[in-house]
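pinned: reference chain
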Amino acid sequence: MNDVAKHDQGPPWWTAFLKAYAIRGVISRACQDAGTHRSTLYRMLEDPDRKAEFEQAEQEYRESLEAEATQRARDGVLELVVANGLPVFVGVDEAGDYVHDPALTVKFVPLMRRRCSDALLIFLLKNRCGYLEKTASEISGPSGGPIQTEAKVEHSGKLSLQDSVERYRQELMNDDDMESTEIGQNATISPGEKDTQ
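pinned: its C-alpha cells
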C-alpha cells in the first residue's frame, strides 16, 4: 500500500478509490468508499497513466491475498475447541500456562488450537513453485478445425478388424447352445439365452 499512498494527482476521489481498491479488491465497493460511480471510474481508466495506477493497486491487492493465504497455510489461524457443541475451557496459572492441578488454577480460559490449511499450502506450492496438475486440453487445427493426420498401416499377416468380427459372428452362429442369434449394433445375446423376438 506504500505505492498507493504516493498518488496525489487527479480528483480527490481517485486517491481514495485506489486506497480502497488495494484493500478490498472489489471495484463497486471501492467506488462506493470513494464516493464515485463506476462509469466515472471507467472513463478515468481510459488514461494510460491512471490505468497503470489502477493496475498497481490491483497488484497490491493480489499480494495481500497471497500474504494472507501464506499465513493461513504456514502459520494457521486460531480456532476455538468445541466438544458436544460447547467450548472447552482449561485452567491456567498466574503465568497463563495450562495446568492440570485444580489447586494451581487461577482462572479458566477457552481452549484454542492453531489450524493450518493444507489446501492453501498445496495451492501456493502449485502457484509459486511450479507444481502443475495435468489437465485435459483440446488441441485443434487451423481455424479451430480438426487436426490433419496421416497414418501408414502395414499388413502384418494378422486378421483385419472386419475379418475378426466376421469370424466372431460365425462362431456365434455355430454355437450349439444358441437356438437363434441376431447380431446388431445394440444387440448382444449370451450363449444359452433365447431370442424373444
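why pinned: Strands lie at 77-80, 82-83, 86-87, 89-92, 107-110, 112-115. DSSP finds seven helices and six strands in the chain.
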